[in-house]
Amino acid sequence: MAYRRKTRAWSLALCASTMLAFSGSAAQAADQFKQAADGASIECAVSARELTRFALVDDQFASVSKISTGTPYNDFAVTNEPLRGDIYVSVPETYAARSISFFATTKKGFVYKVSCQIEPVPAVQVFITNPAIATNKASDWESETPLETSAVRLIQAMANDRTIDGFEVRQSSALPARVGDLEVQLIADYRGSALAGKVIRLANRGRKPLTLAEADLASSQTLAISIAQPTLKSGESTVAFIVGSNGGLGHD
């Protein structure tokens, strides 16, 4: 395993491969997934006749503030479910307005403004995530050891296909790139707070054996790197694990 090695020609192929865009998965039509920062506005749709569930990912609702009309037939209701910290919104058939709005405070101290259109749809769920929560979890994991030690721990996690709390892990659909006889393809991308890791597939497309050095794949931003099988016969492939600073290895 090497640290902060020089960039060589094969690192150009790595950069070309890792800069390709990732494909996202479509959310289910029945549920709504929202991402919001502290103080942000969240727009959504609530059911006109059935319950709408609002759930926070890795957080819970602490309180909801809204204006009451004083007349139950023309006011929507918000019920807090104490076990999971979710809230449920119900709108009466006599409700005159076409939208609802309220402020929600969470147990981790975030505040959101929720504005929703009332739609003639069945019961729905609205899931709300805040990237700051995941970033804090990743930062806690990274700070357990010195940064370069954490980089080695991240390589170990990637090599064993383990998830890390707070890290975003995305599988890549990037096409392979070629430099000479070497084929380089991004397989997976790990993103934490300070660290970023990449799983790279390397294949020898030439007729002669090929020996890979860690310095051939490292850049100035690389903190740790490991190649599972440095020497490849013609047609053989291996996997490399590269860890650097978040933002320093390229992103889509």
TrEMBL record:
Keyword Transcription regulation annotated: no
Domain TraK C-terminal: 139-243
Tree of life domain: Bacteria
Annotated signal sequence range: 1-29
Record's keyword terms, sorted: Signal
Residue intervals of the TraK N-terminal domain: 35-136
Cross-referenced InterPro entries: TraK_C (IPR055397), TraK_N (IPR010563)
Any Pfam family: TraK_C
UniProt key word Signal: yes
Name the record gives this protein: Conjugal transfer protein TraK
Gene source species: Sphingopyxis macrogoltabida
